[in-house]
Amino acid sequence: MSQNIEIEFKNMLTKEEYERFLVEFRINNKQIFSQENHYFDTPDFALKSLGAALRIRNKGGAYEMTLKQPATVGLLETNQTLSAVEALTAFKLGMIPAGIIQQLIEENGIPSSKLKYFGSLITNRAEIEYKNGLLVLDHSSYLTIEDYELEYEVDNYQAGLKTFKELLTKFMIPERKTENKIRRFYNQKYKQPDLK
Fold it and tell me: Alpha-carbon torsion 194, 55, 134, 35, what sign?
């Protein structure tokens, strides 16, 4: 189990803007890796209503469950390593394994037995060290959607915000209201009739 505060800035990109970043930072296909996020919530979106989100990430055959909860600055991420059997059981039955994350969810008044597996989002990602932070370019596919996103992960909020805004200005990209992947996935999932 590990916990950390995540401070990141995000901006949606058009396909053309995304491709400009790939060229500018000389990113080739070998630098792009794939990861799959699997999302869970209750049918009435109890975690989402708390500003929290639960995912299991499959990256290179290793599984990690992450609960994201609001923090004073950024998000508090609680991570728990899972075996393949635990992850596959969660996908098939919606049952998450016992541990700190199950405990935190239940402390918020949400019975873990009410959780449901909602589906997955696949991201092709490139990461670049950039001015005391990590610049991330994502191309994601989920449900019937494809989107492109720029993220900038930092330790210092003020310095990171300044650098991120300067980068958008340099590339002449407008600031766009950008929800995180989990919310974008949920917003699309919520439109589907099988949840009603």
Answer: negative
Separation between Cα atoms, residue 37 and residue 176, nearest integer Å: 23
* Contacts of the segment 184-187: beta carbons below 8 A, 24+ positions apart: 184/140, 184/142, 184/145, 184/147, 185/37, 185/39, 185/118, 185/119, 185/121, 185/142, 185/143, 186/39, 186/41, 186/45, 186/48, 186/53, 186/118
For the chain, list the domains and their CATH numbers: 2-191 (2.40.320.10)
Please tell me the predicted confidence (pLDDT) of residue 115. 95
Whole-angstrom Cα distance, residue 90 to residue 101? 13
Q: Which pTM does this prediction carry?
A: 0.82
Q: Are 129 and 27 in contact (CB under 8 A)?
A: no
DSSP symbol at 95: P
Render pLDDT for 42-96 as a digit per residue (tens, 0 to 9): 998 899 899 999 999 998 889 999 999 988 887 899 999 999 999 999 999 988 9
